[in-house]
Amino acid sequence: MRHDVVIIGGGAAGLSGALTLARARREPLVVDAGQPRNAPAGNVHNYLGREHTPPGELLSIGRSEIQRYGGSFLTGTVTDADRLDDGAFRLTLDDGSSVEARRLLVTTGLVDELPAIPGVAERWGRTVLHCPYCHGWEVRDQPVGIIATSPLAVHGALMWGQWTGDVTLFLHERPLPAPDEAARLEARGVRIVTGRVAAVEDEGVRLASGELVSRAAVVVQSRMTARAAFLERLGLKPTPMEVAGEVIGTYIAADPMGATDVPGIWVAGNVSDLMAQVIVAAGAGLKAAAAINADLIQSE
């Protein structure tokens, strides 16, 4: 069966796009594996009208709304994609089945590649955090540690000082901050600890020296990699995102409406915007869906 639009990924961006297209009478199909990036988190924040909603509940509400307007869902992972002679797309799923679509909206998000520090992965999304806007209120006025795993560490330490006056920056394997950075950290009351971090424990940060620095929460920066390997056969390769000469992630480049360089393919959410929070991803899904509908109308 050929669909007007297949949406690959059922997070906030994908569901928002599906709702928009369903209300436009396009009967979109959402292909999703059920592995959202924010699954470890307890709640969604900064989403107007849905503050503190558990991620799974938000997605469940969205799916019900989409089905009410005629959208449908297919559980699976897209492993390959081909362009057909008439310009449509054929998607191959992990169970060997396939679906065809006139247009694609890719909202597969990203993968957080965590630093190889014992204790980080087990606590990710609970006491090991990444974003002050997502988690800052929950650990306000508590001791927070920033482990320098990227060039954004100093920026992060300065930011987290807005939520708590007890911030410690663990340099781990990175050099001392430049004099101007050190002055800013001192002005914000950030303590700097040198030496390699051996592990993150329930009580705090364990240094290689054996010392334990008590922290209620620990912040690390993951390497954010776009989840879109299947797009490379269609000519879409991830673009590196660099900060201070270091690659901190990859994304699929697109115009403001989500259109990629490959005709017929749009992207939205974290796959194209590494820093997008849930509400931003949802808005991007709506914009891309509206552009796709307009493109279909023009072709028709």
- CATH topology of the largest domain, which one? FAD/NAD(P)-binding domain
Low confidence ranges = none
Q: Give helix % range.
A: 10-25%
β content, as a range?
A: 25-35%
Number of helices: 7
Written as H for each helix and E for each strand, in order along the chain, the element string is: EHEHEEEEEHEHEHEHEEEEEEEEEH
Describe the overall structure.
- The protein has 300 residues and is of the alpha/beta class.
- The chain has two domains: 189 residues, 3-Layer(bba) Sandwich (FAD/NAD(P)-binding domain), CATH 3.50.50.60; 105 residues, FAD/NAD(P)-binding domain (3-Layer(bba) Sandwich).
- Helix content is 24%, strand content 28%.
- Strands 1, 2, 3, 4, 5, 6 and 19 form a seven-stranded mixed beta sheet that branches.
- Helix 1 links the parallel strand 1 and strand 2.
- Helix 1 packs parallel to helix 2 and helix 1 packs parallel to helix 7.
- It is elongated and about 65 Å long.
Q: Brief overview, please?
A:
With 300 residues, this protein is of the alpha/beta class. It has helices at residues 12-23, 55-68, 120-123, 132-135, 153-160, 179-187, 278-299, and strands at 2-8, 29-32, 72-75, 78-83, 89-93, 98-106, 110-113, 128-129, 144-147, 167-170, 191-193, 197-201, 204-207, 212-214, 217-219, 223-226, 239-243, 246-251, 265-267.
Topology:
Elements: E1 2-8, H1 12-23, E2 29-32, H2 55-68, E3 72-75, E4 78-83, E5 89-93, E6 98-106, E7 110-113, H3 120-123, E8 128-129, H4 132-135, E9 144-147, H5 153-160, E10 167-170, H6 179-187, E11 191-193, E12 197-201, E13 204-207, E14 212-214, E15 217-219, E16 223-226, E17 239-243, E18 246-251, E19 265-267, H7 278-299
Helix pairs in contact: 1-2, 1-7
